[in-house]
Design goal:
- With 199 residues, the protein is α+β, with helices and mostly antiparallel strands.
- The chain has one domain.
- It contains 7 helices and 4 strands.
- It is globular.
Length: 199
C-alpha cells in the first residue's frame, strides 16, 4: 500500500466503519432485548471520526490492518457473549444481521456483477493485498466466486465459536443486502458463492 492516504485507504475504512455499525446495531438490539441497554457496550467502538483524523500516517497499512483485526475480534466476541447468555439466540441474531444487510441494500436493479462489486466495496475481507475473492465464472445472468483463504475463522475460534458461524452470519448479511433486488445468492460449497438473476 501507498505511504500516502489515498482513495483505497478511504475505501477500506468505509468497509471497517460498516462492520463497526453492524457490531453497534447488534449490541444495542441485544442489550435492549435483555433489559440492559449498555450490556454489550464494551464490544462497541464509537471512535469513527474521518480517517485522516485517526490514522497513523507513518503506518497506514499497519493501522488499517489493526482496525480490521480489532473489529473482527469484537464481532466474534460479541456474538459469542450473546450466545453464552442465551443459547437459543442464534435465529434472532441471524434476523438482526439480515435486517442490517437490508438497511445497506444493493440497488434494486443491480446485475449479478454489480452486486458482487457491492459486496467487495462493503464487506471486510482482509486487506486488498490479500486477494481473497476469486471469480470462477461470470455471465450476464450470474457470477460465481470463491474465497481462497479464510481470514475470519481465527477470530471465531479465539472467541470459542466455530468459524462456520461467521459464514452463516455473513450469508445472512449478504442476502439482506439483496432483499430488494431480483437476485438470489447461494453457497454451492464451503466458501464458494453464486449470485444469479431470478428466472
Amino acid at each position: 500500500m501507498s505511504l500516502f492516504l489515498g482513495p483505497i485507504h478511504h475505501w477500506l475504512y468505509r468497509k471497517i466503519r460498516l462492520q463497526e455499525e453492524l457490531i453497534t446495531t447488534l449490541a444495542e438490539q441485544e442489550g435492549a432485548k435483555s433489559g440492559d441497554s449498555g450490556k454489550y457496550e464494551n464490544f462497541v467502538n464509537r471512535e469513527l471520526r474521518p480517517l485522516e483524523e485517526l490514522i497513523d500516517t507513518d503506518n497506514i497499512h499497519g493501522w488499517l490492518q489493526a482496525r480490521i483485526h480489532d473489529a473482527e475480534g469484537r464481532y466474534a466476541a460479541l456474538v459469542s457473549a450473546i450466545l453464552k447468555e442465551d443459547s437459543g439466540a442464534l435465529p434472532r441474531i441471524k434476523e438482526e444481521v439480515f435486517a442490517f444487510g437490508a438497511s445497506n441494500a444493493v440497488e434494486a436493479d443491480a446485475s449479478p456483477a454489480e452486486a458482487y462489486r457491492y459486496y467487495g466495496d462493503n464487506l471486510v475481507n482482509g486487506m486488498p493485498c490479500d486477494h481473497v475473492d476469486r471469480v470462477t465464472e461470470q455471465a450476464e445472468d450470474h457470477i460465481s466466486w470463491t474465497l481462497d483463504q479464510d481470514l475470519h475463522g481465527e477470530f471465531w475460534i479465539e472467541a470459542g465459536q466455530s468459524p462456520a458461524l461467521y459464514y452463516e452470519l455473513r450469508l445472512e448479511e449478504m442476502r439482506g443486502m439483496l432483499s430488494g433486488t431480483a437476485l438470489t445468492l447461494t453457497m454451492p460449497s464451503e466458501m464458494s458463492y453464486e449470485l444469479r438473476a431470478k428466472a
